[in-house]
Design brief:
Order of helices and strands: HHHHHHHHH
Shape: globular
Structural class: mainly alpha
Number of helices: 9
Distance between the termini: 37 Å
Strand content: under 5%
Helix content: over 70%
């Protein structure tokens, strides 16, 4: 028997894990199509591509042996994505609620990390959140102020706690915060970047991917 034949198969190339690369590739293709559609102003492309993103990423995480809380967080993100495709306040609140449940899943998952979250980072996040809410408060619709504040607090806590799983997860948490801040400034009708939806989706897609990769990398070191 050759040395190659006697070597045990890697998890990524044995069993369900063999689908990991195709699923990740499909996710990246869907992300590229969605972003290109936003840049081109093709709403139909966005309506088709956006709902594919989180199920593909969740499937990738699943075949990589990711924890159930990660899969749940991604799927609740999918729920938020779908609700936010409708342009009305009820859909916005439902979408925000779905994302909030996803953040609770992430927080619970990060709470299993062995390393404590950096206090200095937490203070910095708290200051940024407080300043942002003070600045944007009067420009938000009255009925959305309390829900947005509560959601922002939960999201900020998730972004801070993500750092316990390393740089990938920490960057993902920060980008998620940035993405939702861009949405909030749009609701408040602040000046926005050209192609604002493109930047919202770019930061969001990168955030979810980095959070997933951070959790999966941490899972190789110890069980979370």
């Amino acid at each position: 028997m050759s040395a190659t034949a006697s070597r045990p198969a890697r998890p990524e190339t044995a069993g369900p894990g063999r689908f990991a690369r195709p699923l990740l590739g499909a996710f990246l293709v869907a992300a590229a199509v969605d972003l290109a559609g936003l840049l081109a102003g093709l709403d139909t492309v966005h309506l088709v591509a956006k709902p594919l993103l989180m199920p593909l990423l969740a499937a990738y995480a699943a075949v990589r042996g990711g924890p159930r809380l990660l899969i749940a967080a991604l799927l609740f993100g999918w729920g938020g994505d779908v609700f936010l495709l409708a342009d009305n306040d009820l859909a916005f609140l439902l979408g925000m609620g779905s994302f909030a449940v996803g953040h609770v899943c992430y927080l619970t998952l990060f709470g299993r990390g062995r390393a404590p979250a950096a206090l200095a980072t937490g203070v910095a996040y708290a200051v940024v959140l407080a300043v942002f809410l003070v600045l944007i408060w009067s420009d938000l619709p009255a009925e959305l102020r309390v829900p947005v504040a509560g959601y922002s607090l939960l999201l900020t806590a998730m972004a801070w706690r993500a750092g316990v799983l390393g740089r990938y997860a920490a960057a993902g948490g920060a980008l998620f915060l940035l993405s939702d801040a861009l949405i909030a400034t749009g609701i408040a009708e602040w000046p926005r970047l050209p192609a604002p939806d493109f930047w919202v989706m770019l930061t969001y897609i990168a955030a979810q991917l980095l959070l997933a990769l951070g959790v999966l990398r941490a899972g190789r070191v110890h069980h979370i």
